[in-house]
């Protein structure tokens, strides 16, 4: 199967592609200076944190809905990652490449015959990267407050009042989706998180419905 390029509109897609191209730029600089440890550190951080723990978490529902943009973005990330890995881990990256080649019909016989990646400057958005970094802190803050209040993430919360230094308003939807908050009020200032945990009959119904769905899914597994 071939992954066709699609129009990228979602902020989480634009963010991970920005991080990917920043990664390519930083790794190329490090390669030129023979700082291979820096390449490994940057790749590890991107793979483990940005892609696996963060982006995949952001797009879970979109994967379930077979969103083509998500599949394109993940494929693009994997492609570039293994290319950057190839000088450091030639055999592992070749094995991954050959597995992907079978599925996506890559043209080259070997990863070592592929064109070396260069960053696309137009895809790098440092402001978005900074805003997302602040948004992730907010998400962790809300989840921490939830834990203190003994409210699991499946249980909807009425409102979160956030104070943040960066402009995270464009990322409001992502924060609400990741923390299951119905309303998000954002103010400018030092990072702070407060939750309105008042329960209403509607929130109770939604919470119980989510719990039932979770248990049904567990039973199906």
Backbone structural class? mainly alpha
Pattern of helices and strands: HHHHHHEHEEH
Low-confidence stretches: none
How does the major sheet shape up? 3 strands, mixed
The residue fraction in helices comes out at 55-70%
> What global shape is seen?
globular
Q: Tell me how many strands there are.
A: 3
Strand content: 5-15%
- Helix count, per DSSP? 8
Please give the radius of gyration in angstroms: 20 Å
Strand order of the largest sheet: 2-1-3
User: How far apart are the first and last residues' alpha carbons, in Å?
Assistant: 29 Å
Mean pLDDT: 90
Characterization of this structure:
- With 221 residues, the chain is mainly alpha-helical.
- Helix content is 61%, strand content 7%.
- The chain contains eight helices and three strands, in the order ααααααβαββα.
- The protein has helices at residues 11-32, 36-58, 60-64, 68-85, 90-104, 126-148, 172-179, 201-220, and strands at 159-164, 184-188, 192-196.
- Strands 2-1-3 form a three-stranded mixed β-sheet, covered by helices on one side.
- The radius of gyration is 20 Å and the shape is globular.
- The model has no long low-confidence stretch (mean pLDDT 90).
Please describe the topology of this protein.
Blueprint: H1 11-32, H2 36-58, H3 60-64, H4 68-85, H5 90-104, H6 126-148, E1 159-164, H7 172-179, E2 184-188, E3 192-196, H8 201-220
Parallel strand pairs: 1-2
Antiparallel strand pairs: 1-3
Helix pairs in contact: 1-2, 1-4, 1-6, 2-4, 4-5, 6-7
């Amino acid at each position: 199967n071939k992954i066709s390029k699609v129009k990228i509109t979602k902020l989480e897609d634009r963010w991970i592609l920005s991080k990917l191209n920043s990664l390519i730029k930083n790794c190329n600089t490090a390669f030129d200076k023979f700082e291979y440890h820096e390449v490994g550190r940057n790749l590890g951080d991107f793979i483990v944190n940005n892609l696996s723990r963060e982006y995949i978490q952001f797009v879970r529902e979109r994967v379930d809905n077979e969103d083509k943009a998500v599949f394109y973005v993940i494929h693009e990330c994997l492609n570039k990652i293994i290319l950057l890995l190839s000088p450091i881990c030639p055999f592992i990256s070749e094995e991954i490449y050959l597995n992907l080649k079978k599925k996506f019909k890559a043209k080259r016989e070997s990863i070592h015959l592929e064109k070396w990646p260069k960053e696309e400057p137009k895809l790098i958005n440092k402001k978005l990267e900074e805003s997302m970094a602040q948004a992730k802190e907010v998400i962790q803050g809300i989840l921490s407050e939830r834990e203190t209040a003994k409210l699991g993430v499946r249980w909807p919360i009425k409102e979160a009042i956030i104070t943040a230094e960066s402009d995270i308003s464009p990322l409001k939807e992502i924060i609400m989706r990741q923390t299951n908050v119905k309303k998000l009020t954002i103010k400018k200032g030092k990072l702070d998180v407060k939750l309105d945990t008042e329960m209403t009959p509607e929130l109770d119904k939604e919470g119980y419905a989510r719990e039932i769905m979770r248990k049904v899914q567990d039973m199906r597994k």
